[in-house]
Amino acid sequence: MPKHSVTLILGDGTGPELAAAAQTAVDAALRTTPGAGTIEWLPCEAGVDIMDKYGTPMPESTIESVRKSDATLKAPITTPIGKGFRSVNVLLRQTLDLYSCLRPCKSYPGVRSRYSNIDLVLVRENTEDLYAGVEFAKGQPQTQELVQFINRIATDRKIKTNPATTGVSIKPISVENTQRIVKFAFEYARANGRKKVTYVHKANIMKHTDGLFKEVAEQVAKGYTDIESEERLVDNMCMQLVQKPELYDVIVLPNLYGDILSDLCAGLVGGLGVAPGANIGEGGAVFEATHGSAPKYKNLNKVNPTALILSGMLMLRHLGETAAATRLEDAVAAVIAEGKNVTYDMKEDRNDPSAVGTQEMAQAIAARLEGK
């Protein structure tokens, strides 16, 4: 039986509680699946709680563990809004070149939603575009030079911005990075029996960035004649997903659009609490819940562990533990459908006194796997 090394990033806020719950469920899936391997868990610190200790939210020792292990399961980490350190998630993606963000969005009976039978997979380019964070603050000398340059070369666009009061973000999109993310989407579709890949852009306006993304996606699609392909403008894609999500399957997008539409699709299936995620590249594979760290609920044993447990399910598939992954997903679905041992947010009445805690829901999933 294989032994897998897995870095377990504990995160901050409710992160450690969620990490413990996910570990309980994943271990139960492996322990109860004939022929499955085992996991050597490598707990590592990250997040705002260790800033005083290390001077950084992401110590080099944690990054090195991610590099060396077979996979990483990461609990949520707080990202300050408008100040403080940049996103630890972005740091990991860029440092380890985790170029593909995989976000399955699937309906589970028992989860409250206006929709049913949703089964979408978003593939988001993770390393460039506006979301890469190449920005220049207003008032800085280099920013003023950039704005003056833009004003000078864009006279035909009638852009007249004040160099002293303007911030600048840069949107790089390359042939190489577009090729590999679109190939990833098609390979994923082929490996998982998916029928169609939709590539999303705004090439009617951004002709030399999104236009490049569209052109390269069309070229890559020619090598996958067994998979249907199509294009959509990002604004139209938003409307299409709300009106008729059943028409879509695998969706591949540049970084910023992928970030926005992945949350939209999570909304179709009941919210971020049931939305797993993965960041995959040559430097490793990090599996994570797509929601935040909810610090106000820290140590209350209250938050929903489903997203991180399902991220653990994706991790098991990545490690080749397909049978254990399928059994884990089935157990999660069964506990949710039963509606008894679920957290407050999954009850019809959020004040329902029968709601259980984070660890109790994980234990119910483990019990289902053990046939209890």
Mass-distribution shape: globular
* Number of contiguous helices: 12
The major β-sheet equals: 10 strands, mixed
Q: What is the CATH architecture annotation of the largest domain?
A: 3-Layer(aba) Sandwich
Euclidean distance between termini CA atoms: 25 Å
Radius of gyration from CA coordinates: 22 Å
Give me the oligomer status.
Answer: single chain
Q: How many individual domains? A: 3
Q: Quick check: average pLDDT?
A: 93
What is the CATH domain class of the largest domain? Alpha Beta
Largest sheet strand order = 2-1-3-12-11-4-5-10-8-9
CATH H level of the largest domain: which superfamily? Isopropylmalate Dehydrogenase
> Which series of helices and strands comes N to C?
EHEHHEHEEEHEHEHEHEHEEHHH
Roughly how much helix do the residues carry, as a percent range?
A: 25-40%
Strand content: 15-25%
